[in-house]
Amino acid sequence: MNLTRIQYFIEVAKLENFSKAAQALYVSQPNLSKQVGLMEQELGFDLFRRVGKNVQLTRAGQYLYEQLKDLPEYTARAIAHAEALSRGEEGKLSIGVLEGQDVNFSLSGGIAQMQERCPGVAIEMERNSFRNLRLGLDRGTYDVLFTLEFELRGKEEWDSLVLFRQPGAIAISRSHPLAGKEKLTIDDFREEPFVAISREDSPGGYDLLLEQCARCGFTPHIVRETSTLESLLLCVEMGVGVALLDRNTRLERNDAVRLITVPDSAAAGLVAVWRRDNQNPMIPRLVESLSQRQAGDPPELRGI
Question: What is the pLDDT of residues 64-103, one digit of tens each?
Fold first, then answer.
């Protein structure tokens, strides 16, 4: 029993007349009668009984009509929704954002532009740690991440869009003696205690700190490893140690902390990241919107 026969049956049941139903469906009456007859044969019982020039539903036909009368409309809505999903115009998009990062400029404009184009898209956002974001992306909890570029290390299955890059910075409490010095390099901190994100939470971030200090000929004295970026920022605020960060954190607006851009630091890139095998059609829509929102030079694309 196919959808066409169901549609024919429903139309005849509504109009109680084969001729009128055939006209409404733009088909010939013999073909309509044949298809309804085949449906009755397939079911093994009569759907209609003749009353003069009209027809009436049998008891079984009436029950079937009540159950199926909304099926064509429901099917049409379902197909339209599926088509919209395939075009990335409807559905859900889950975004994970690195805690402590200021992503308003990069994220809000791109999302606003995307929602203007695709008002049927439901966007969910959540802040989380490096580790939880990675796990969430690989497990399908998140479709897209906003995180730092060193998180891409060893992740060949990820694609990314670089939103912007900026020099790294040393975050230091303003009560520290070095905080008043005008020009500083990483080498000036070789004897200072460092706080760092743990290797478990961010292998790329931890290794980057070691690499940059090694270029200056020393191994950092790490006195505290934290499991979250927020804990790292708190340690800096409390004067536990100094930290190598990007400038795009909430510490930028903290009067108790000085962020010192260091010329010998690696550039810190904020990136949008997604799995290459994620088939959510809204991912390329968001990436397109983010790309168009970038100011200045065009953003760098990897694998898109």
Answer: 999 999 888 888 878 876 776 666 566 788 999 998 877 7
CATH number of the domain residue 120 falls in: 3.40.190.10
* CATH code, 19: 1.10.10.10
Other CB atoms within 10 Å distance of the CB of residue 145: 25
Segment 7-57, tens digit of pLDDT? 999 999 999 999 999 999 999 999 999 999 999 999 999 999 999 889 999
CA distances from 177 to 29, 114, 208, 219, 284 (A): 95, 48, 26, 21, 48
* Number of domains making up the chain: 3
| Whole-number Å distance between alpha carbons of 95 and 44 | 53
CA angle 234, 239, 235 (to 5 degrees): 25
Query: How are beta strands 221-226 and 243-246 bridged, if at all?
Result: unpaired
- How many helices (H) and strands (E) in the chain? 10, 12
Residues 211 and 262 both lie in one domain: yes
Q: What is the pLDDT of residue 84?
A: 67
